[in-house]
Amino acid sequence: RPFTLIGATTRAGLLSAPLRDRFQMREHLDFYSVDELAEIAARSAKKLRMPLDEKSAREIAVRSRGTPRLANNRLRWVRDYATSTAGGKVTFRIVLGGTERRRGPVTVSARVVGVDGRRAAGRAEATIQAGGAGADLTVRVRGAKLWTPLQPNLYRAELTGRLGPKICDRVAFRFGMRRIHVRRGRYRLNGKPLWFRGSNLVFEWQWGGPGGIFNRNVKRYLIDEARRMNLNCFRTHTIPPPAQWLDVADEHGMMIWAELPVLYNNRNFKFTPAEFEVFHKHALLDSAGWVTKLWNHPSVAMWVLSNESRDDNKWESGPFYERLAGMVVAHGFNAVLKPDAWCASHVADHCVKHKNESKSVRRKLKKKATSGRKR
Q: The domain spanning residue 155 has which CATH number?
């Protein structure tokens, strides 16, 4: 029967002349021009609802090697990077305390410097009415550098409050800037793919007390030994780590999955509805306190909301998750919320349950024992 053969190749020179001659019509596909790619980038930017001027669209097109796929990828990278750096701005949430007997405006000045303290990266000042609800103070940071495990860039914030000529208070702390999110079932850090490779921390900071061997060797245990095993993160067991350990993780680029102390471990406490209501109230207060206490640490990449519970999943995956997620979004804090320590269904990277692992291990051990008896 008559038929039509259509062929496509990117290496026509490797075909023999007789074979090429069998194709009566030979068309050649060329790369897209810079103008065409700029138009594609502009059209994609509208779909993403992001502003893109003509010069920027052309700059993306020049770097896309004549391919629309690369142009769209670069457009998303630019979008993610611009979002993560927030336009080179840092926002401090100022809440005044002890102002009940004070009257008049409080002047708050903020200074952002590199951790070495040599050069100020930005300054700003705001006036807040004593006794008010507080305010946000935004500082533009020149040449903002993002925090990553390979380049753990940190900054130091110095805030001073004045009531007239008198200094009321001073606060200083470190922070880092980075964005972790999930896109198409995969983690991304500052717009680039992120793969977690980690192990567990089980109260090592409590072993032996403040002067114990682990607290005396935090960097050696948390960074040096972990890096030799190609690890870039740790998940804590049922409680977040102390600030001392997070300071080391911030400085050396180790990511932490901090698990909140909402623990069941297969135990049924047989709470009445009234007791569950009290438990839920205090679990939310405790968890919110941990999040707000540690949220300036860029090493905290994820909050694990509970561990191996059985009897309260509806509340944990519903109101508990929604309330914490709402607080995190409202305060501009960036971290992934993981509903349960066993499995995260929103991400494909680590969706493996312990019980499946244990069955696989048992099958291998049983097979090994059987083969040993035969020998």
A: 2.60.40.10
DSSP β-ladder status, 180-183 and 186-189: antiparallel
pLDDT at 84 over 70: no
**Are 240 and 323 members of one domain?**
yes
Q: 343 vs 18, 340, 352, CA distance in Å?
A: 58, 6, 6
- List the CATH number of the domain containing 237: 3.20.20.80
Tell me how far apart the terminal alpha carbons of the chain are, to the nearest angstrom.
Answer: 62
**Tell me: the pLDDT tens digits for 238-290?**
899 999 999 999 999 999 999 988 876 667 788 899 999 999 999 999 988 89
Do the domain assignments include residue 261? yes
Q: 329 and 278: one domain?
A: yes
User: Does residue 364 have a pLDDT over 50?
Assistant: no
Residues 6+ apart with CB under 8 A from 178: 84, 146, 147, 148, 189, 190, 298, 334
Q: Between residues 169 and 330, which one has the greater pLDDT? A: 169
Instruction: Specify the pTM.
Output: 0.67
Exposed (0-12), middle (13-18) or buried (19+): which is 96, by Cβ within 10 Å?
buried
Determine the structural domain holding residue 337 and report its residue range. 196-342
Number of other CB atoms surrounding residue 108 within 10 Å = 23
Is there a single domain that holds both residue 159 and residue 243? no
Cβ neighbours of residue 271 closer than 8 Å, sequence gap 6 or more: 279
Instruction: Quick: pLDDT tens for 150-167.
Output: 999 999 999 999 888 888
Q: Are residues 323 and 201 in the same domain?
A: yes
Q: Annotate 189-227 with b (16+ C-beta within 10 A) or e (fewer).
A: bbbeebebebeebeebbeeeeeeeebbeebeebbbeebe
